[in-house]
Amino acid sequence: MTCVRWPAAGAPAGLPALLSLLALLSGGTASTASAGASSDMSSLASVAVAAPRPASRGGSRSYPVVIAHRGACAYRPEHTLPSYRMAIAMGADLLEPDLVSTKDHVLVARHENEISQTTDVARHPEFAARRTTKVIDGRTLTGWFTEDFTLAELRTLRAVERLPALRPGSAAFDGLASVATFKEIVALAKRSGVGVYAETKHPGYFASIGLPLEGPLLATLGRYGWRERADPVWIESFETANLRALRHRTRLRLVQLLEAAGAPRDLVTKGDRRTYRDLATPGGLAEIATYADAVGVPTDLVRPVDRHGRLGAPTPLVADAHRQDLDIHVWTVRPENAYLPAPFRLGDPAAPGYASAHGDVAGWLRTLYGLGVDGVFSDDPGVARQVRDEVVRGAGLVHGASGTDGSPAETPDEEEGANAQASGGGAFYARAAGEGGPSAQASGEGGPVAGRRRQAAPVRPAPPRPPGAARPRSSPRRGA
């Protein structure tokens, strides 16, 4: 273990409300206070950080990647080009879209193929008759589905915030962006010097209706020159069958996603009784290692949290995955109190807006990075990047030189106008320093700890972006 010391954790994303992103970008001072505050934090906190793994899979990366979960979706409607542009400016290494298909077999980015919660489709009378009920992976859903629309028809819709009560600041940007295609996201990533981390959503279902996702996915990546294991690309799935098939079709890296409960749909369909928990055992990980390069797991599987929000002891999953030469990426770190373990929540639980207020997400990230994970999915990639860089500097690591630094060479789409985020990354680093929260050593007992208000950090240029490239494999995957 390497002992890293840094200033006590504030809440870089601890904004008292989500109504104004401009306050965040200008580096104002947050004033969120901890309930039950009784003393100031000390100016320094010691945090134990797992020593980085030796490079073993190509490139120079030996530190965690920051995965922009659906873009910077804490601040813009998810899966939109403005959300991905903001993520790039914040310093994300990889853009993460969930991919579904249109009727004319074009891959688009949506949380689900049912789009009533993420677009304004219900306001379009011309599509009222398309509302229907389907069974998708065992769930009965009623609404509008991407596979019933051509791309041209989807382009007439506008994206909206999926969680408007929790993220009113993002909801202020409803209606400003259309549904983005995978091609547009890859083109943006390529121009901006970042990679992509693409999820095949319901791959078995889409294959069953004659719209398999894998062909268009690989074709689009190949069109932009991404075909090799060393390229900054990851392909993820909650199912196992399409990853096994992909292993024979591509050298790009594959990620087996796991849940804390349930089982992969393809295993359920064929009567295989194994669950996600079974796949997370040493034996399950050994099998995953025959076709995948990484596992993507919920944070609960590496640091459990009980129903009261209390943290449990770390599990051996990180070490177990590394023994199989698998990277391990954790999902999803969100800044709001509603999604944080109790020790990292800030504010008065009885106050209006407590659930949507930003807590000490930096402290939670330090805890996760300290476990030795290889990547983090984050709805706020800016704070994930900032904390990652603190860990990198504290551990004495050196950034790879092959990444593209600075602002994306990108002109906003006409439809997004002035609302598109195409500025450089430096401004996004001026995070508001909020009330001090717990250190990464916080136990699961008790609530948040009060801290001393600190001045906002000065604007500084972002350090060189990690390349997100693969590390050389110690042995090739079977079927690769």
From TrEMBL:
Stretches for region Disordered: 397-480
Keyword rRNA processing: no
Signal peptide: 1-35
Catalytic activity: a sn-glycero-3-phosphodiester + H2O = an alcohol + sn-glycerol 3-phosphate + H(+)
PROSITE patterns linked to this entry: GP_PDE
InterPro entries: GP_PDE_dom, PLC-like_Pdiesterase_TIM-brl
Residues in GP-PDE domain copies: 64-388
Domain of life where this protein originates: Bacteria
Keyword annotations from UniProtKB, A to Z: Glycerol metabolism, Hydrolase, Signal
Top class in the EC scheme: hydrolase
Biased composition, class Pro residues, residue ranges: 460-469
Gene3D superfamilies for this protein: Phosphatidylinositol (PI) phosphodiesterase (3.20.20.190)
The EC number(s) this enzyme carries: 3.1.4.46
Family: Belongs to the glycerophosphoryl diester phosphodiesterase family.
Name of the protein in its database record: glycerophosphodiester phosphodiesterase
Organism for this UniProt entry: Sphaerisporangium rhizosphaerae
